[in-house]
Amino acid sequence: MRHKKVSRRFSRSSSHRIAMMRNLAISLIEHEIIKTTVEKAKELRRFLEPLITKSKSDNLHTRRVVLSKLASKQAVKKLFNDLGPRFVDVNGGYLRIIKAGFRAGDKADVCYVELTKRVEVAENPEEVVNDVEQVEDASKIVSPKTTEDESVAKQETLKKEDTKKEAPKKEATKKEAPKKEAPKKEAPKKEAIKKEATKKEAPKKEVTKKETPKKEVTKKEKPKENWWSRFFK
After folding, report:
1. Does some domain include residue 231?
2. Is residue 71 part of a domain?
3. What single string gives the DSSP state of each residue in 14-71?
4. For residues 25 and 47, is the Cβ–Cβ distance under 8 A?
5. Which of 26, 92, 110, 193 has minimal CB crowding within 10 Å?
6. Is 0.70 surpassed by the pTM of this model?
7. What is the b/e burial string over 142-167, where b = at least 16 CB atoms within 10 angstroms of the residue's CB?
8. Which domain holds residue 26?
9. By the 8 A CB rule, do 26 and 34 touch?
């Protein structure tokens, strides 16, 4: 019987549970916020908060104890150098669980686990300057390289275009050749002479069946015997 056993098994072996909690703790120390299920978050709080309490007193012994639990030198380094001094004045309650609805696949309770004192990195996005500027009236811009000779040449070309007389287009008088109507020779329609096929009807031979004379069966009438005659034979 499992009386007085509060731990959650998660349908895993003991080594698998320890490895799972260790990975969740390392990722939470690194990113300071993670997303997981509510049950795992509650178990993670029981696993990680004692380690944060030990990180407040920085010495060799506590470092070795925490390293045996986490097995990550980078996580232990951040825990003692950054998180321990941050939570010196706090007595427990280092993690916060924020519920975030249900998971799409199996409808499991999902939540965010974060540190109560979390450093928010303010990102200042760099302003991207576009080298190419769009100008509305590009025709009004006069480049400084244009010389007087070019402007004179432009004016002369404009004058020549104005003085050009539009030559009247001669309408091509197409001589319409009289179309000779070819006299269609009407082929004399030969009246189809329908020859009446004089089919000689072959005289049907009448099959004269000879009637065989039926032989009349003459039954000999026997004289009726008297009923009493059989007793006198």
Report:
1. no
2. yes
3. HHHHHHHHHHHHHHHHHHSEEEEEHHHHHHHHHHHHHHHHHTTS-SHHHHHHHHHHH-
4. yes
5. 193
6. no
7. eeeeeeeeeeeeeeeeeeeeeeeeee
8. 14-115
9. no
The total domain count for the chain is 1
Whether the per-residue pLDDT at 178 is higher than 70: the answer is no
Q: What is the mean pLDDT of residues 125-141?
A: 42
Q: What CA–CA distance (Å, rounded) separates 72 from 184?
A: 109
CATH (domain of 86): 3.90.1030.10
Q: Facing residues of 102 across strands?
A: 109
Residue type, 186: E
Q: Does residue 102 carry a pLDDT above 90?
A: yes
**What are the beta bridge partners of residue 33?**
114
Closest Cα to residue 21, out of 40, 49, 38, 8? 40
Q: What is the pLDDT of residue 196?
A: 53
